[in-house]
Amino acid sequence: MAKVSIVILNWNGAQFLQRFLPSLLSNTSYPETEVVVADNASTDDSVSIIQQFFPQIKIIQLDRNYGFAGGYNRALAQIDAEYFVILNSDVEVTPGWIEPLIDFLEQHPDAAAVMPKIRSWYNRGCFEHAGAAGGYIDYLGYPFCRGRIFDHLETDIGQYDSVAEVFWVTGACMMIRANVFKTCGGFDDAFFAHMEEIDLCWRIHWKGYKMFCVPSSLVFHVGGGALPAENPFKIYLNFRNNLFLLTKNLESRKLATILCKRFLLDYIAALMFMVQGKFSFFLSVIKAHFHFILSCKKLLRFRNNHSYLSGKFNAHHLIFHKSLVWHFFVKKRKKFSDIFHYSK
C-alpha cells in the first residue's frame, strides 16, 4: 500500500488550522496517510495550537518565511512518501476525498499528478478560483479553468464531473508522485508564491507525463488566506511570475513574439488600473516588469542549463491557441465550455 503524506504549508494561519484540521483528520480514512504541517516561521500561535490540540500531526518548523514554493521544497525534502498531497490550510475536505486521487494514480502510471474538484467555501454551489475543475492556459500564458475564466465563476451543476486531462493542477490541493516532484526539480523558489504549480506542471509535461482532474473527489477552498485578491503584492507576483513562466517554458521559436504581446497587454492592464484609481496596482505591474527584466539573464541561463525543453512536449492540445482576453472581454464568452474544446 502506497504511503501518502498530506503536507500543509502554514504561515500565520492559526484560524484555518483550528477550523479545517478536524475535518481533514476525520475525513481522511486511507490507512497509510500522515499529516504534516510545515510552518513558514509563523508569528502567531499556529505551532502551539497544533502541539496542544493535534499531537498526531507532525510539525516541520522552517527558520523563516520561504513563501509557498521555497517552503514546500524544504518541507518535502524531509518527507519520505510515494505520494505527496499539497494542501492549503484553508481547504475543507469531504468524506472519501482522498481515495479517488490515489486510485487514479495507481491505475494510470502515465499520470504524474491529480487534483479534486474545488468549490468555493463561501458559495458552496460555485467553483472556486484556484483550480475549479482543472487548469488550462492560453497561448499568451493566461491561466483559466473548467468552471472559471478570469474572475467569472460558474455554478457547479455537474457539467464538469467527468475526469479530464488538464494542463495544470492547483497548488491549493494536488496529489503528485514524489519521484516526479523531485526529478522535475520541485517548485521554483524564485516564484515565491503564485503560478509556481503551473511552472512545475509545464516542466512535467516536457517530461512526457500527464495530469488530471478527478471530480469524484471534492474539496472546498476559502481562497486568499495568505494574500487577499485585492493586494498589491499579489498583483505584483501574478504579473511577474507569469512572465517567468513563459520565459522558462515556451519553445524558443515562440518566446520573443509571445513576450512582446504580453508586455503590451500588461501595460494596457496597468493603464486600466490607473484609470480606475488603483495606483498601487499600477505600480505593482511596473515593478513586476522591472524585476522580470532584471531576472532575464538568470531565466535564460536556466533554459540553457536544463534539458527538459528538448524533450517531447505532449500537451499542445491542452493549450487554448487563441486569445483568452479577446474571447472573454470582447466576445463576452464567460464559460469554459463556450471557449475551449480539445480532442485527445
Search tags:
single chain; 344 residues; alpha/beta; 9-stranded mixed β-sheet; 3-stranded mixed β-sheet; 11 helices; 14 strands; 40% helix; 20% strand; globular
Indicate the topology.
Layout: E1 4-10, H1 14-27, E2 33-39, H2 46-53, E3 58-61, H3 67-76, E4 83-87, E5 91-93, H4 99-107, E6 111-120, E7 135-138, E8 143-145, E9 148-149, E10 152-153, E11 164-166, E12 173-177, H5 178-183, H6 196-206, E13 210-221, H7 232-249, H8 252-275, H9 279-305, E14 319-320, H10 324-330, H11 336-339
Helix pairs in contact: 1-2, 6-7, 7-8, 7-9, 8-9
Question: Could you characterize what this model shows?
Answer:
By secondary structure, this protein is an alpha/beta fold. The protein has a domain at 232-315. Helix content is 40%, strand content 20%. The strands form 3 sheets. Strands 1, 2, 3, 4, 5, 6, 11, 12 and 13 form a 9-stranded mixed beta sheet that branches. The longest helix is centred in the last third of the chain and has 27 residues, at 279-305. It is globular, with a radius of gyration of 19 Å. The two termini are 32 Å apart.
Helix content: 40-55%
Which regions contain 5 or more consecutive residues with pLDDT less than 50? none
What do the pLDDT scores average to? 95
Q: What count of helical segments does DSSP give?
A: 11
What's the β-strand tally?
14
Shape: globular
Rg, rounded, reads 19 Å
Structural class: alpha/beta
Main sheet summary: 9 strands, mixed
| Share of β-strand residues | 15-25%
The helix/strand order is EHEHEHEEHEEEEEEEHHEHHHEHH
For the termini, the CA-CA separation is: 32 Å
